[in-house]
Write a structure and sequence with these properties.
This protein is α+β, with helices and mostly antiparallel strands and 208 residues long. Helices cover 51% and strands 8% of the residues.
Length: 208
């Protein structure tokens, strides 16, 4: 596909996840940096993402928002990158990608906000308890080298980003399984390139 690929982001946001995924695909893209509360809420960008949040991508006439969806879309659209699941990997791939997008994200956010779900209300919360989420995540990264099996996929970009962010900011427990897993995937050249690009963009925006 030859349509222009535009990446809307801010370097101190979840856009870092999408940046990593874009670098893994190796396809060319154009970056539009947005500011919180300003250009993110401007009419031009709200026509892309009515939520006024980043990241988002526009690929030709196709717009994709939400990090998990962006990762899955890019993996499927650019199969030459080898990041989409093989048939035997699909179960684990989708299971853990959407576990991270749902229960993990919700549990970590609630904890960061200082909110603890009452034990008698846990059934109402899709994420359950923070402890159960951490235990389940540990199993996800301990059963094999990568979350979908023995090779790196887009699910590792998404799950790994949550773990790396959580370890860095103390929002998830520093279990050895998490440290080891993120250590493996953060050695990838695409991760290093993406981090360098976002760090440079952050410095440029701060200096402006």
């Amino acid at each position: 596909m030859t349509e222009e690929l535009i990446f809307y982001t801010n370097p101190v946001s979840r856009g870092r996840i999408a940046r990593w995924m874009l670098e893994e695909t190796g396809v060319p893209y154009r970056t539009e940096l947005l500011t919180f509360g300003e250009t993110m809420k401007a009419p031009h960008y709200l026509s892309v993402n009515p939520m006024g949040k980043v990241p988002a991508i526009r690929h030709g006439d196709t717009v994709v928002i939400e990090c998990a969806a962006i990762c899955a879309y890019l993996a499927d659209t650019f199969p030459q990158s080898g990041l989409a699941p093989r048939p035997e990997e699909r179960g684990a791939y989708y299971r853990w990608m959407f576990f991270a997008a749902g229960p993990l994200e919700a549990a970590v956010t609630l904890k960061a906000l200082g909110f603890e779900i009452p034990k008698d209300r846990l059934r109402m919360a899709g994420c359950g308890s923070f402890g159960d989420v951490m235990g389940t995540l540990e199993k996800a990264v301990s059963r094999s080298a990568f979350v979908a099996g023995d090779r790196f996929t887009a699910a590792d970009v998404y799950v790994g980003s949550h773990i790396g962010w959580g370890l860095g900011f103390g929002s998830i427990e520093k279990r050895q399984a998490f440290v080891d897993y993120f250590g493996r995937i953060s050695e990838r050249e695409a991760y290093r390139r993406a981090s360098a690009l976002d760090d440079e963009a952050a410095s440029t925006m701060q200096a402006a």
